[in-house]
Amino acid sequence: MDESRRKFLMGAGRLLVLTGAASVAWDAIVEGQPEQAPNYNTIDHWWGMVIDIEKCIGCGQCVRACKEENGVLLDDEHFRTWVERYVVDMDDPDHPLVDAPNGGYDGFPDLPGMPENIKTFFVPKLCNHCVDSPCVQVCPVGATFDSPDGVVLVDKDRCLGCRYCVQACPYGCRYIDPRTNTVDKCTLCYHRITKGLTTACCEVCPTGARMLGDLKNPKDPIHEFLRTHKVQVLKPQMATGSKTYYNGLDGSVR
Amino acid sequence: MGSRWHNYSHLIRMAALFVAGILIFLVGRSFFVPADFGVYWHYRAGALDDARARPIRFAGQAACVECHSDISDLRKTARHAKVSCESCHGALATHAAGDEPLKPTRPNGKALCVGCHTKSPSKPVAFPQIDVADHAGDNACIECHNPHAPKIS
């Protein structure tokens, strides 16, 4: 059989059996790399996160897991996610005391000498993966962008390290990585969620205070949660379209 | 005729400069802007694959349960049922993949327990908390509690 005819028949046969994405996946499997089979379609997903303040115990597991999973610098200045402790004096609720020793990496030591009438709780923070992200809008070189599945990512090959986005983020979720002099931030564990795993912080959270959710998947429990809870986002007045929803958020949280 | 062209020469010079400028811009652009820039939107499409390429460190609960179903069965009805294995045992993707090191280290018992269960006014009231010195003294937590099924019956 001549080469071109053989090629045609094989191609046609494959087209009949496997179509579209399945055919591309088959190529990866034939090459012995099934884990790279692109069975993940970005337009089928829309990622967000729910954080339940009423469950957070401030243990810092998420902070440690995030640094481990993503190779974040182990100092007290660089965090992709961190936990804040709020102490609200009910006689002066507009000026809460906020601390985050080492971002909550080592847990929280007791605060001595607190007034009697206080409300205190933990607030885990991370990139809010906004729909109308201020950071994406200011990037002059298209190095930071909204992925088609709703995750704000950074292209380290293009980032100039100009720090516009660090200033633009209303939530303080970005920092310059001194090792590369490019910006770094939470990727919502993009390398995990595109493989069917949950994020590192959600994986280790012992109380289920963090829940990753696929808003385009009608069977995802996030929909039930959002229907039955009064959730809020941080700084709604900034109109960022944040997709990190907080349950039980106190009005004093900034 | 010569004098007539002479009248336009400044315009021709200007036009030539514009053309040269546009050419330099186009050549520079093709050099600096990656080929897959703008396939989806104002970014390099390959950056999505770059973000996906990172290796995982936490294997995920499903991978643990695949082999250690005895422990997951024990935990099923216990109070720690919803705590994932790697929450206490650490990131074990290399262990799950069968690579070195095969034997994970045993978690540091008391420090780990205390990390969650030490008493704090900031924690939710319903969460089980103890004053460690009062509750256990110098004893190890696992002398009384099995961490996989901590409730003492």
Question: Care to describe what's here?
Answer:
The complex is a heterodimer of chains A (254) and B (153). With 254 residues, chain A is α+β, with helices and mostly antiparallel strands. Chain A contains 8 helices and 11 strands. Chain A has 2 domains: 3-39, no CATH class; 47-254, Alpha-Beta Plaits, CATH 3.30.70.20. Chain A has helices at 3-17, 21-30, 61-70, 134-138, 164-168, 190-193, 200-204, 221-228; strands at 47-52, 81-89, 97-99, 118-126, 144-146, 152-154, 175-177, 182-184, 210-214, 231-232, 244-247. The radius of gyration of chain A is 22 Å and the shape is globular. Chain A starts with a helix and ends in a 7-residue tail after the last strand. The model of chain A has no long low-confidence stretch (mean pLDDT 88). Chain B has 153 residues and is mainly α. Chain B has 8 helices and no strands. The relative contact order of chain B is 0.08. The mean pLDDT of chain B is 89. Chain A binds chain B through residues 42, 54-61, 65, 68-70, 85-87, 107-108, 110, 114, 118, 120-122, 142-148, 153-158, 187, 190-192, 194-195, 197-198, 200, 203-208, and chain B through 34, 37, 40-44, 47-48, 50-58, 60-61, 80, 82-84, 86-87, 90-91, 115-116, 120-124, 127.
Give a brief rundown of this model.
Chain A is α+β, with helices and mostly antiparallel strands and 254 residues long. Chain A has helices at residues 3-17, 21-30, 61-70, 134-138, 164-168, 190-193, 200-204, 221-228, and strands at residues 47-52, 81-89, 97-99, 118-126, 144-146, 152-154, 175-177, 182-184, 210-214, 231-232, 244-247. Chain B is mostly helical.
